[in-house]
Amino acid sequence: MTDFLLVAIVLLVVVAAGFSAYKSRAIEQAYPNIGELTDIGGYRLNAVHLPRPKTADLPALVFIHGASGNLRDQFEAFAAPLSGRAEMLFVDRPGHGYSERGSAENALPSGQADAIARLMEKRGIKSAIIVGHSFGGAIAAAFGMRHPEKTEGLLFLAPATHPWPGGVDWYYTLAATPVFGWLFTQLFVIPIGLRRVETGTLSIFRPNARPADYIMKTAPELVLRPQTFRNNVIDVVNLFAYVSAHAPRYSEIKAPTVIITGDSDEVVLEELHSRGLARDIADAELVTIRNLGHKPDYVTTDVAIAALERLAGQPRDLYELAAQAEIRIASLTGEAPQSSSAVSQAVTTS
Question: How many angstroms separate the first and last alpha carbons of the chain?
């Protein structure tokens, strides 16, 4: 009976691994690589690099996506609206999208920041405004501390940068373990994950509406491939200890900084992370937008672009633009306009 059970388990694992491999290939066929792989010293990072146009009025821009994502997320939000205005680099973080993982140091934001700095050098980008969304915010902060000479400015969008209560979900911890984590990713991640893509992407936009074509354009299913999922959960599991150790050092950041966040973000709490950054980085501008969730890159793209312009030295009233965004969001949700949190913030921070 024991031998039979052992054989059955082995067969189950083999079948599940085969199914995962098959579905992984199908996902890659549905969402082929739109970037280019560049060797940065023993492994390759994937990126879309849009060269500096003759009409550029902004410095180079480097975009860093969040957890469970890939470069398409920021590319779809910013490439078209900023076309003709800047050199842009949209990066698959190490072990995500189509980038290779590299060494163990890339399991931490510091290692990923260093990898992006090497990619910039390979691509001939001496310095840039670094844009980090969500988990990418921790990497942007690490970049600002470790590579100040390459940092013309920092734009944080709903960033994850400080310790938070409650830890991470159990399945992240399980999936990060050496043996059971491998089994978990092979047996369960793709069949369960494919069913949750719809609800998961809706939740990251909540309370705002998710664009109808968001899944098709941003390929979130790429994270369901077993090794990519493992890389993702290891990043997330490591994040708490990392930000606990490094958040006290954010005062070392000297680059001009803007933080855009929503007061209704249920993924990354703005009162811990964004307010913490505004407290820790001297002269950082914090723009909090009422009824905005976790996706200012999509819901308030105009405010994010204005922030890039401000970081480039152009005069922009971010708080007035944020107030207009609040009115727009209220009209979409059917809520009555209220006194603007952004305008109130401008009064208290000016």
Answer: 75
Decide if 258 contacts 156 (C-beta within 8 A).
yes
pTM for the whole structure: 0.93
Look at residues 24, 28, 99 and name the one whose alpha carbon lies nearest to residue 64. Answer: 99
**Where do runs of H (alpha helix) occur along 262-300?**
274-280, 296-299
238-287 pLDDT, tens digit each: 999 999 999 999 999 999 999 999 999 999 999 999 999 999 999 999 99
Residues 305-346 have pLDDT tens digits of 999 999 999 999 999 999 999 999 999 876 655 544 543 343
Sheet holding 44-50, edge to edge: 36-39, 44-50, 88-91, 61-64, 128-133, 151-157, 257-262, 285-289
d(CA 59, CA 308): 9
71-78 vs 301-311: helix crossing angle, rounded to 10:
90
**Helix, strand, coil percentages in the chain from 3-state DSSP, rounded to 5:** 55, 10, 35
Q: Are residues 155 and 77 in contact, defined by beta-carbon separation less than 8 angstroms?
A: no
Helix axes 318-333, 301-311, angle to 10 degrees: 170
Sequence-ordered strand ranges (E) for the chain:
36-39, 44-50, 61-64, 88-91, 128-133, 151-157, 257-262, 285-289
CATH of 2-255, one of 3.40.50.720, 3.30.420.40, 3.40.50.1820, 3.90.420.10: 3.40.50.1820
Token output for 192:
């369960």
